[in-house]
Amino acid sequence: MTAPETQWVFDTVAGIVDDTSLAWGTSQDVDTDAGEVPIRRVDRNESEIFDGSIRTRKSELQTSNYISAALVDDDESHGGFGGEYDAEAIVSLRIEGLTHRKRGHIDPDGQEGIDFTTLYRRVREALKAADEWPGVAGADYHTVFLENGTNRSSDWRDFYDYRVDVRFDGYADS
Q: What is residue 101's DSSP assignment?
């Protein structure tokens, strides 16, 4: 079952399709209209796709770019009197794609896919726009922070990889 914080991230980034030419892919066999870029959202806590290296996902990245997320930490500590607790959760978010030269959907010119920097910036903007009082079941988070953003695309020639931690901060009742 997808963690509520991970689901909030997926629901929030789904909104980027409303004002871009991106289309969400729903399966590995995605058909999209001309000019649309398929994106598949994957919960890394529930999937075996991300068990191997990025090179083992080449065929998956030929069908779709990936936005994957995993709840990597959640903690509650006593925060005051009575049953009040401070709550924090961290979702590790990855955005991955393959160059159009290898039949992927990333193209710096935007002719045969989307520029990767544009893709991950749109994802970040969607998260920032909803960073106050995110509606997450089971917790009363007041703020979402984006931390440790790293573009690791230069590590590979044909693969694009951006990672960021999404930290939820707030309160939980006992």
A: G
Q: Write b or e for each residue in 60-72: b if 16 or more Cβ atoms lie within 10 A of its Cβ, otherwise e.
A: bbebbbbbbbbbe
Q: Locate the domains of the chain by residue range.
A: 4-71+93-131+142-166
Question: What average pLDDT does range 64-85 have in this prediction?
Answer: 79
Residue 38, strand partner residues: 23
Torsion of CA 15, 12, 104, 52, to 10 degrees: -160
Q: What is the pLDDT of residues 120-136, one digit of tens each?
A: 998 999 999 999 999 88
Number of Cβ atoms within 10 Å of the Cβ of 149: 12
